[in-house]
Specification:
The protein has about 325 residues and is α/β, with parallel strands linked by helices. The chain folds into two domains: about 250 residues, QueA-like; about 70 residues, QueA-like (Thrombin, subunit H). Helices cover about 15% and strands about 25% of the residues. The protein contains seven helices and 17 strands. The strands form three sheets. Strands 2-1-17-16-14-3-12-13-15 form a nine-stranded mixed β-sheet, covered by helices on one side. It has a six-stranded antiparallel β-sheet with strand order 5-6-7-10-9-8, with no helix packed on it. A two-stranded parallel sheet has the order 4-11. The longest helix is centred in the last third of the chain and has 13 residues. The two termini are about 30 Å apart.
């Protein structure tokens, strides 16, 4: 029987949604799921290194979140800058969209942008009279469930300490827990996947397999590929990393991933009964009910068991979502 979207629902009290980060990055709680024994442990993230061996490899996403949300000078239009196509051209989401037809203009920080094209999915191609300075005029597009606007503190905390490749709309949140001091002691490698707006889009179909996944750009260096293939165990830090590793593994199932440099897009949709071939362990935050991210975690460790673990987390009052606590599935 095909799985339904409602099969991935769980009850979450609003009071458990983290609107702010913890005082210290590594102060989060960590729910540990041992897949082979069925044991569930309540630990702290600072204990994360205790679960790693010397030959294990952490793979992290070094994408950097940009302040992609801008408002017109007259306050009537909101734009989310999704993809920079050239120095003066951006693919954007516009709100309200009805006003932003081809040929219409908008002004942000005194710079005029004109709608050149309206794409089939509703995105707009805007050409600006001069390069748009997002760091001067933009805001972080915090997830709606935080229930607030971004502030100065978010510029640091809604960003991993290893972020370096600009292009994400949202943070790869499993990486938010790491400090430089912890990371320098652990064997690790980086890849890049720019987290797009599709991360926030709900699954609107009844049957899970009918969902069409959004595509996101990624890049993996030959050095990272070599480290992944040489590791005794690969620990994916976040669902974005898991998606890239599994997408590349699908191209050649004789190794964890084909050697060499890799650059492209992936729209891989991982849900039960998918069998993982590249990822041996997964560190991830808690995800929204009925989301594609939760479906990926359920594919990794089993739907019923993961949802049972989520019920444990709710009962123990873990903090949920982007600024919340984390899970380690080993």
């Amino acid at each position: 029987m095909s799985l339904r979207t409602r099969d991935f629902h769980y009850h979450l009290p609003n009071g458990l949604i983290a609107a702010r980060p913890p005082a210290e990055r590594s102060a989060s709680r960590m729910l540990v799921l041992h897949r082979h024994s069925g044991l569930i442990e309540h630990r702290m993230f600072r204990e994360f290194p205790d679960f790693l061996g010397a030959a294990d490899l952490l793979v992290l996403n070094d994408t950097k979140v940009i302040p992609a949300r801008v408002f017109s000078d007259d306050g009537k239009t909101e734009l989310l800058c999704l993809d920079r196509l050239s120095a003066c051209e951006w693919r954007c989401l516009a709100r309200p969209g009805k006003r932003m037809k081809a040929g219409r203009s908008v002004c942000v920080g005194g710079i005029v942008g004109t709608v050149i094209e309206v794409f089939a999915n509703g995105d707009r191609l805007l050409r600006w009279a001069a390069p748009l300075d997002l760091y001067r005029h933009g805001h972080l597009a915090l997830p709606h469930y935080m229930g607030r606007q971004d502030d100065a503190a978010d510029l640091e905390r809604y960003q991993t300490v290893f972020a370096r490749e600009e292009g994400a709309i949202a943070a790869p949140t499993a990486g938010l827990h790491f400090t430089p001091e912890m990371l320098e002691k652990l064997p690790h490698a980086f890849l890049t996947l720019h987290v797009g707006v599709g991360t926030f889009r709900p699954v609107s179909v009844e049957v899970v397999a009918d969902h069409i996944m959004h595509a996101e750009r990624f890049e993996v260096t030959a050095a990272t590929a070599a480290k992944v293939n040489a590791a005794a165990r690969v620990v994916a830090v976040g669902t974005t990393v898991a998606r890239v590793l599994e997408a590349l593994h699908a191209e050649d199932d004789h190794t964890r991933m084909p050697p060499g440099d890799h650059r492209g897009e992936t729209d891989i949709f991982i849900h039960p009964p998918y069998q993982f071939g590249a990822v041996d362990a997964l560190l991830t935050n808690f995800h929204l009910p009925q989301s594609t991210l939760l479906m990926l975690v359920c594919a990794f460790a089993g739907r019923e068991w993961v949802l049972e673990a989520y019920r444990h987390a709710v009962a123990e009052r873990y903090r949920f979502f982007s600024y919340g606590d984390c899970m380690l599935l080993i």
